[in-house]
Every structure is written in C-alpha cells, then in structure tokens.
Design brief:
Largest sheet: 8 strands, parallel, barrel
Strand order of the largest sheet: 3-4-7-8-9-10-15-16
Shape: elongated
Structural class: alpha/beta
C-alpha cells in the first residue's frame, strides 16, 4: 500500500511506535528487510547520555490487551546510537524516524544534531509519563513545546515530529504551538497516566507507576487525533490501542496519515508480526477484518505465589532454590521470578516438580537470591518462550555452561536419546551431575582438570564428534545454552561436522519483559530471544 509521507513514497502506511519491538538496530534492520507494510520505522527514544532504565518488572497486564509500563528511557546514548543507526541499510521506500528526548531545550538540540544525519526525520518525545525530568511536564506547556521545536528545527534539516501527551485538557492547543515552532508533523498519543498496578499487595512495576497503553487508551487516542486534525494542517502519526482494520479506518477518517501499532504486537514472534501486518494491509484493501484475530489477547502475565523450601549452596556464587509447588513448562520454556522490592529475572527451571532453579550471582537481584531464607514468599509468571521440539528420532547433543544446564537438562529429560556436555572452570562449580547421568550420557569438562576432561567443554565436544560416522552426524540436533562465548564456540565446532540447520542456541541475553516488546533480548539477526527463542537457529 503505497503511502505519501513528508516527501517520500513509502511501501506501507504503518509504523511501530517508539519503545515497542523496534528498540535496537538489529531489529530495525530485520523489519526493514522483511516487513514492507511498515513504511515508517520508529526507534526507541535516544537521549544525550546512556540510561539503564528501571529494573524489572517494567511491564504488567491488568486486562487482556491493556498494559502499564515503565521502562525508564533505556538507551545507549546519542553517540553510540548514531554509530548503530549509521550501519543500517534503509530502503528507498522506508522512513527512519529517530525518536529523541532531553531534559532541556539545549539537550534536545544536542541529540538532534548527533542523530539527524542518520535518519529521515526526528520524533521529539515530549510525553513520557513516568521518567522524572523528562517528557510529560514538557509536553504540557505550549510555550515550551514551541521553544523546543523551534530550536531543533533551526539545528537540523530533516522533518521534526513532536510526540504529544494525552494528559492535557486541550491537545489541539499543544499541536498548534508545535506547528507554530515549525513542526512538520505530529505524533499522538503517548501512553496515558501514570498509573499504578498491584499484585498480591505489591506494586508490580519497579518504578511504582507507569504509562497505560493498549485497548484502554484507544478512545482517547482517536479523540486526540481528531482534535489535532481540526487544529493544524500537518501529517499525523497516530498510535494508541490500535489493533484492527476497523481501528485503522477510524483513525484515517480522523485525519491520520501513518498508523502506529504497538501493544497489539505483544507476545508475537517476528514471523507472526510480519504476518499480522500483511493481513492488516489486506483487510484495508478488501474491507475485511481478519488481523485482530492474530492479536495475542491470551497472554498470561499474572504472578503466582511460591514459597522457598530450600536454598542449597553449590559454591560461593552458585545456589539452587527449590520452591513448594509444581510449574507446568516444557524444555526450552522459561519463567520469571519476582521478589517485590528487589525485581524480577527470567530463569529456566532446573526441575518443575517441585519447581527449582539455578542462580549464579551476577548482580544485585541474584546476590539477594543467594541468601534467600526458606519460608520466603516469591512470585512466578510464565511459562514464556517456545518449547524445544527436536525432530522425531534425532539424537540430542546438549552443550551447557553455568545456568544453561537447566534448559538443556529439561530437553534431555523430556525427549531422551541425549548426550549432555557440561563445562565449568572447576569441579566445585558443577552441579546436578547424578540427575543428568540418569537421563543422558554425561560428558564433563573443567578448565583446571579437577574433574572430567582437562580443558574447555567445546574441545571435548569436538573429540566426541570426531568419533561419529557421517550417518550419525546427520541425525544430530544440538542445543547450546550458557554464556555467549561458550555458545559461539560450541556452534563453531558443530559447524565443522554438521549443518547450521541442526544447531540451536540459547544465550543469556538480557530478557526484561518476556513478551517481545522491550527489545532488550535482541540477537544479531534481529530475533528476540523471549518470543523467537529462547533457542534460536544458528546462522
């Protein structure tokens, strides 16, 4: 569906709003390459300096299709973001809209100058409802909006599009101020709020409050777009609860030129998102309503209480936590463990009945888990991710390090006919060996030779593969899980003997939301490990 927008003829009328899915250069490039319906690619908001954002939980679902989030403007900083954006290959029929933010007029100008050479336009985030010192307060002042837009326009030679907050009595007045400052278009709306959401008597979001998105804000978003269209004559990028072709038509009738779809993509893997936009485009052309049936309104983000039964120390920074209940999950799936006040992190289950997990102390959250007392109540959500499904009759070769053993143990246990290769620096860092030996042929390697093979586990793997005839090599399926360097080394060895199609990797990416929205767990090929994995095909 060809669409005219700010001097470019685009391949489609859709965008994915800032902060949703397209939050890394890897993901953006994949969308450029595979989803022509998404004519405008909007980046996550970029500021002058790197920001880690808020710790998890960063998102909660309070009704199907309705969410509250507080990510905290996570970004690598303008200088690094410019490097990443400069490596993109942007098709002629696409528009890269780089979202930026700042704490002052001067910071907006600073970031704009750095980012402008790498995009087709700049979105000014004037509307984040939960980041202190940024966002909504700026966007509620028409004079300040005009000042920021005027200053940025004077500093760059590409279109400037302020993103407006719905948390104002008269959004048309704000839009008029933006256009008076030289705005080339308007984006509306950002999330509403902020609001709080509780579970089991605790604030879910680590920030306490966050912006409301999804179906809950659809009506307000449509109202705002109509008000803006009635007040100014510039292109409007509309977003806020849109999920169906009917929604799209209503926003187009209200004056929107580009349609943003965000929360509706929650839980979809990359191929499902591509299919969703294809179907949505066909709906608009054929006057049908098929796309919304693809939206995952069945996403379960509810927390269930668990009580810690045992905290067994393996070594100084490794422990196994065992809880009082069963969790229903398959090999490859993962859960989130939430400790109110501390945060949440994803884990593969070592066992599911009773539920247990392995912890390696890598930061504040895992350090707290190391000393968690029996009787402590925690909460879990999930499962998330995709279950591993080895080909029928295949022999499983599982290579693990650190907490990666949990994921591959489940796969070997569920499917049998498996060999597990488990590596560690020293013997004291090995665990669950008897259990692994019961369900598989177990191979152990330690860097110092204190147990098993003296050397790295990938060398032991190579020796084993050298023993196998070609027919057996062709029947292997590999699951590698653990630290990135170990996984990449295992993949390299496996490719010496087998095809890449036989290899699946689970790397400890920074998975934050678990439902594919925040983009924190992006892989090099633009996959998101939480919805496309956690085991991703080797390339």
């Amino acid at each position: 569906m060809k669409t005219e927008f700010l001097g470019k003829t685009l391949s489609g009328p859709f965008t994915i709003p800032s902060g949703i899915v397209t939050c890394s250069a890897n993901i953006i490039q994949r969308v450029f390459d595979t989803m022509p319906e998404v004519g405008v690619l909007t980046t996550k908001s970029i500021g002058p300096e790197p920001r880690l954002g808020y710790r998890e939980p960063i998102m909660a679902q309070y009704e199907p299709g309705c969410f509250v989030n507080a990510v905290g403007l996570t970004n690598p900083g303008a200088e690094r973001a410019a490097e990443l954006m400069s490596a993109l290959t942007i098709p002629e029929d696409r528009f890269l809209l780089i979202s930026i933010f700042g704490g002052s007029v001067e910071e907006y100008v600073e970031v704009a100058k750095i980012m402008a050479p790498h995009g087709d336009g700049l979105e000014l985030n004037l509307s984040c409802p939960h980041a202190k010192g940024y966002g909504t307060a700026m966007g509620q002042d028409p004079e300040l909006v005009k000042e920021i837009v005027t200053a940025v326009k004077a500093a760059v030679d590409i279109p400037v599009i302020p993103k407006l907050t719905p948390n104002v009595p008269n959004i048309g007045e704000i839009a008029q101020a933006a256009v008076a400052g030289g705005a080339d278009g308007i984006c509306a709306i950002n999330t509403m709020g902020p609001e709080r959401y509780h579970s089991h008597g605790h604030d879910i979001l680590s920030n306490g409050e966050g912006g409301v998105s999804g179906k809950a804000i659809l009506g307000r978003a449509l109202e705002c777009v109509q008000e803006i269209h009635d007040c100014v004559d510039v292109p409007i990028v509309a977003c806020g609860g849109i999920s169906s072709a009917e929604n799209v038509r209503h926003f187009q009738e209200a004056g929107a030129a580009i349609i943003g779809v965000g929360s509706a993509l929650i839980g979809m893997n990359t191929e499902e998102i591509a299919e969703y936009f294809r179907v949505l485009s066909r709906d608009l052309e054929a006057d049908t309503e098929a796309a919304e049936a693809l939206v995952r309104y069945d996403i379960d983000m509810d927390f269930e209480p668990v009580t810690l039964l045992q905290n067994r120390r393996i070594t100084d920074n490794i422990c196994i936590l065992t809880f009082d209940r069963k969790v229903s999950l398959q090999g490859g799936e993962f859960i989130f463990l939430w400790i109110p006040g501390l945060g949440e992190k994803p884990f593969s289950a070592l066992t599911d009945d009773p539920f247990s997990l392995v912890v390696i102390n890598l930061g504040a959250f895992t350090e707290a888990l190391m000393t968690l007392e029996p009787g402590t109540e925690a909460y879990v959500r999930g499962p998330h991710g995709n279950a591993a499904v080895p080909p029928k009759g295949a022999k499983i070769m599982a290579v693990a390090g650190g907490t990666g053993l949990a994921a591959v143990y489940q796969i070997a246990r569920d499917f049998g006919n498996a060999e597990i290769f488990f590596g560690a620096r020293t013997a004291e860092r090995l665990y669950f060996l008897n259990e692994c030996a019961e369900i598989s042929t177990l191979h152990i390697a330690t860097d110092d030779g204190s147990r098993g093979y003296h050397g790295v586990v990938t060398d032991l793997l190579r020796k084993r593969l050298q023993e196998l005839p070609k027919a057996e090599l062709e029947n292997l399926i590999f699951y590698n899980c653990g630290p990135g360097p170990m996984v990449h080394a295992a993949e390299a060895v496996e490719k010496e003997f087998c095809n890449a199609s036989q290899i699946h990797n689970g790397i400890d990416y920074l998975t934050k939301c678990g439902v594919g929205i925040c983009g924190a767990c992006d892989a090099l090929d633009g996959s998101r490990s939480c919805v496309d994995g956690p085991f991703l095909d080797a390339t």
